Amino acid sequence: MALDRWIALIILGIALAYGYAAYFTMDQLLPPFMQRNPIWPSTFPKVLSVLAILTSLVIVLGLEKPSGDSRAPDIDYRRLGDYKIGQAGVLLGLMVAYALLLRPAGFLVSTAGFLTIGAMVLGERKLWVLFPVAALATGIVWYLVEGVLGIFLRPLPFFLG
Q1: Domain extents for the chain?
Q2: pLDDT tens per residue, the chain (161 residues)?
């Protein structure tokens, strides 16, 4: 089996576990007044798990490729050194650092830093475009979460607020 199918099989397992949690464990602790709402906190995870299951099944079953396509797979596991594994590793490390710095550094600093450094890792070199875009995106997301949804996100580092 090709590498893309193995990866899709792993994602299928994760999506099945996520779907089980979304369908059977998240809604039991809701208060009675929320059980009458048309949209629950588990609605998005349910939709996300169904889409991930369907997408990974399409890849595992090979339905995305034409039936007469018998050429070599697009991803060759014997040539993994030719792919940008280092870039992917740095991005994964950056995601972990973002998650760890979110509370102590605050949302605005950690998110703008994550977006800026992540874009630089991926190859963006126009810093005069990158900084304002990262700052604007961070500010908009913070306003939507804090102002519109009413969910508190510490905007600044802990020592400033």
Answers
A1: 3-66, 83-160
A2: 677 888 999 999 999 999 998 888 877 777 777 777 777 777 888 999 999 999 999 999 988 877 665 565 566 667 777 778 888 899 999 999 999 998 888 899 999 999 999 999 998 888 999 999 999 999 999 998 888 877 787 777 766 66
- What is the total residue count of the chain? 161
Q: CB of 53 within 8 A of CB of 16? A: yes
- Give me the helix-helix angle, 43-61 and 3-24, nearest 10°: 150
The pTM score is 0.58
What contacts 152, CB < 8 A, 6 or more positions away? 146
Q: Tell me the CB-side half-sphere exposure of residue 10, using CA atoms within 13 A.
A: 6
Cβ–Cβ under 8 Å, residues 112 and 134? yes
Buried b (16+ CB within 10 A) or exposed e, 59-74: bbeeeeeeeeeeeeee
- 18 with 49: CB under 8 angstroms? yes
| Residue 60 · residue 12 · CB < 8 Å | yes
